[in-house]
Design a protein that fits this description.
The protein is an alpha/beta fold. It has one domain: TIM Barrel. It has 11 helices and 10 strands. The strands form 2 sheets. The protein has a 7-stranded parallel sheet, sandwiched between helices. α6 links the parallel β7 and β8. The mean pLDDT is 97.
Length: 288
Amino acid sequence: MKRKGVTALTADCHMHMVLDGYDWKNAIARHKAKPDDAFIHKALQTYRDMGITYLRDGGDRWGVGKRARELAHHYGITYRTPLAPLCLAGHYGAFIGQIYQNLKEYAHLVVSTREQGGDFIKIMISGLMDFDHFGVLTESGLSPDLIRELIHIAHEEGFSVMAHANGARTVEAAADAGVDSIEHGAYLDKDALAAMKDMGVIWVPTLSTVGNLRGKGRFSEPDVEKILDSALKNVNTFAAMGGLIAPGTDAGAWAVPHGNITEEALLAQAGVTAEQWNKGISAIQKNF
């Protein structure tokens, strides 16, 4: 029997050190003057105690992930960060990322990420799930042509690309453009799943972000259950297709504090085996 808090997973391929799983505004305020080393040390200790040896951060513009990368080796953890996610002005992600107005500004940020030692590029190309309304996103995705250019520019600079993406057509467009990983991926269909499989895209479905909302009373319980059921079915289908699936909790998101261990159970519920998620982890480690 496993000790409490210990998971069979050896990696969390999507987390946010800047956030704490409780209150995003207060969490960010904690680090605005400078990264809070005490908080970072505590979180890294938690991951080490869980048996986690690899962390891939979703990024922030205050340097918290970068500081965590500097400290992670003391805990036997390999840490990767894009520095800050890159967000088109007027679209989701402005609260945590760096903003660009056009492709010229985006290209400048990509070069800046390389100069500052970022490990990969993260792009924000869709909204979030509306947890009170099944099937609804807070905003539609960017155009396929823009998505293709964003990925192309980052690849030209030698970066792998992590994409925050929900919605079948947005994910399909990103897969067709050669994105390296899809994060979240709500409301996919057979064409989007096939595109990811055919292009060798790694999917990090972050099931905990939905599963941990159950019973919290913050959102519509029937809709949360429908969203989770939809995600589990799509993950099951993708796993059966032989697609690459990697575990990521989205730790720091609401109701997902650092050290949360529900992702393993949710992946297993979706029919993902340890062999499959370890293959996904290996693919993430190779590409990011």
